[in-house]
Amino acid sequence: MPSGRSPEKIARARVLRHGDNPAEATLWNELKAKRLGGYKFVRQMPIGPYFADFTCRSKKLVIELDGSQHAESFYDRRRDEFMRGEGFSMLRFWNVDVLRSPRSVWETVLAALEGQLHQDVIASDPRFVFAARKIGGDAL
């Protein structure tokens, strides 16, 4: 039985998967084989005319990794709106964040998958700085 996907989209997804940049390879290493919380992800899934970098179908979550060429991109905004219209939530990370702070990225992805993010979070460069707790004068 045919999958319903066009041969052109399948070929394009294959090309995109083989063109991984280091950040995509790092993230995929954490997402593949249900390594992150037992959630299944696929790469370069076609959604309408677009391709999502990483998608968890069961939770309808798309993760996009962006380099500097995506800063203030009208194309990305239009694409995000299309995918949201198809019922997908969107998470966007900068490539550099995946490479420098992978644990923070994984924890954010898990929070989204587990329903801990309840509203839109839009910031040009979000940061959270952890303050170590002190117990008996010693930092943890």
Notes on the structure:
With 140 residues, the chain is of the alpha+beta class. The protein has one domain (7-139): 3-Layer(aba) Sandwich (Endonuclease, Chain A), CATH 3.40.960.10. It has 5 helices and 6 strands. It has helices at residues 7-18, 22-31, 74-85, 95-100, 102-113, and strands spanning 42-47, 50-56, 61-66, 89-94, 134-135, 138-139. A 4-stranded mixed β-sheet has the order 1-2-3-4, with helices on both faces. The protein has a two-stranded antiparallel ribbon with strand order 5-6. Helix 3 links the parallel strand 3 (61-66) and strand 4. The longest helix is centred in the N-terminal third of the chain and has 12 residues, at 7-18. It is globular and about 65 Å long.
Brief rundown of the structure:
This protein has one domain (7-139): VSR Endonuclease (Endonuclease, Chain A, 3-Layer(aba) Sandwich), CATH 3.40.960. The protein has five helices and six strands, in the order ααβββαβααββ. The chain has helices at 7-18, 22-31, 74-85, 95-100, 102-113; strands at residues 42-47, 50-56, 61-66, 89-94, 134-135, 138-139.
